[in-house]
Amino acid sequence: MDTSAIFSSTDRQKLLTKFQHLPADAQKHGKGWSELWQENVTPWDRNAPSPALVDTLQSKSAVLGTSTDKETGARKRVLVPGCGKGYDVLLFASHGYDSFGLDIAPEAVERANKLAQEPEVAEKYPCGSDNTRGQAKVFLGNFFADDFFEHTGGKGEFDVIYDYTFLCALPPAMRPQWAKRMSELLGPNGHLVCLEFPLGKEPKTGGPPHGVTEPLFEQLLKRPGEEVQYDEEGYVVDSQHGETAPHGLVRVDRWKAERTHEAGAGKDHVSIWTHA
């Protein structure tokens, strides 16, 4: 499937022109996302969590473990960067996690907090098997800075981090920063869950969303912070040289999503990573 076909031609053009000439700077790109929210140009907003994440939380407890620490009984902490209106934040909370959503666009945060107050939330996001609900909090902040720690109890370490339409929204020059930051924020026994999207989109068509591949995730997370090499078509070169760095992440599971949003149907994969 051509994922660009899910967006209207007008929305695709607005996304392209909004970001194509911006430098690889989080704040400048944040302004672009804020303007799109103001203009109600949000083709990425599906009004619900991805079914692939719903299925992951229901079927991958053997990998992710429980939502509470077995020794202390404390709720595990989840970070969802680029959370938009916070559907995934609410879903994690319904499974018993203390869930924190982060977005750089004030308009997205405002809408997320409004959504969280709607009376239908408990019905739309029923509690999981243990019948407990964690806190769900969405706040304004820059993923690449530490200021948002004030909203997470002063802690910058998380048991689960979830990435969906976040890496693909970043300019390729910022990808090594993304990997380094993921490694820094993920707790020693934590898990990074990546819903890999959009797979199958040619990188040369630009973005956002920028096309991603399985080797891209592997190379970025193997040696966080280091540059990866691309061929002339924009695909990452699958280099086998170099061992996983001490602060690198290794993949513990990957599968094709049986259910997902229409934009990634038939192609989306979910991968789970942990510290080497």
Automatic annotation (TrEMBL):
Single GO MF descriptor: S-adenosylmethionine-dependent methyltransferase activity
PROSITE patterns from the UniProt entry: SAM_MT_TPMT (PS51585)
Coiled-coil parts of chain: none
Residues spanning the membrane: none
Superkingdom of origin organism: Eukaryota
Listed GO biological process terms: methylation
InterPro entries for the chain: SAM-dependent_MTases_sf, TPMT
Keywords carried by this UniProt record: Methyltransferase, Phosphoprotein, S-adenosyl-L-methionine, Transferase
Cited Pfam families: TPMT
Xref: PANTHER family: CYSTEINE SULFINATE DESULFINASE_CYSTEINE DESULFURASE AND RELATED ENZYMES, PTHR32183
Name listed for the protein in its UniProt record: S-adenosyl-L-methionine-dependent methyltransferase
Organism: Meristemomyces frigidus
